[in-house]
Amino acid sequence: MKTSTLRQASLAAALSLSLLAPAAQAATFDQVKTAASRVDFSYRQMGVAMDGKFNKFDARLNFDPAKPEAGQATVDIDVASVDAGSDEATAEVTGKTWFDAAKHPKASFKSTSVKALGGNRYEALGTLTIKGRSQNVTAPFTFDPASGAFDGSFVIKRGDFAIGEGEWADFGIVANEIQVKFHLQAAHK
Question: How far is CA 110 from the centre of its chain?
Fold first, then answer.
């Protein structure tokens, strides 16, 4: 009789733990490790592929893979922290005709919704603001729950944001399409 009671108690404990396991795996990722994260971009200048990055940004997340539709993200980029590959190019793109960092020091993305696509793939819809101009963008991304890594990319048209005015407005010199790539490393509570 004791053996039967012990078995029932063990079975009840095992069942309880199995029911709690999904709850233990679901966690809200809300602590971005900025030092392990990055925001890069690539474009074509006179037909040649070019790359750049932003060295300073602030990212805030609230993402639970069990409830992705409740996810939120805000990324504020210090545009003066741009690295365009050379000192001369960096000085040029922080100026008035490109990012106008003195007047518009931040570029920002604020999500309005997150949609699950299946297989750890998602889409963040939101508003991107650069140089005081805002556009709706869709940022597809993958999420690795084991590492807390969010990786994605999307394309913007620099003309929509007045990035590269005057003599630089010619898309034959610098292409209109700019690919923005991001890797956000996050931890959970």
Answer: 10
Superfamily of domain 28-188: Lipid/polyisoprenoid-binding, YceI-like (2.40.128.110)
Assigned token pair, 102? 């003195």
List the end-to-end C-alpha distance of the chain, in Å, as a whole number.
Answer: 44
In angstroms, the CA 11 to CA 84 distance is 62
Tracing tokens 């993200």 back to the chain, one arrives at: 73
Instruction: Name residues whose C-beta falls within 8 Å of residue 167's C-beta, 6 or more positions apart in sequence.
Output: 97, 173
CA–CA distance, 88 with 63 (Å, rounded to integer)? 39
How far is the C-alpha of 137 from the C-alpha of 115, rounded, in Å?
13
Answer whether 0.90 is exceeded by the pTM.
no
Q: How far, in Å, CA of 4 to CA of 79, rounded? A: 69
Domain edges within the chain: 28-188
Average pLDDT, the chain: 88
CA distances from 30 to 18, 81, 140 (A): 26, 24, 19
Q: How far is the C-alpha of 32 from the C-alpha of 37, rounded, in Å?
A: 8
Average pLDDT score over residue span 105-125 = 97
Which residue do the tokens 């993402």 mark? Answer: 63
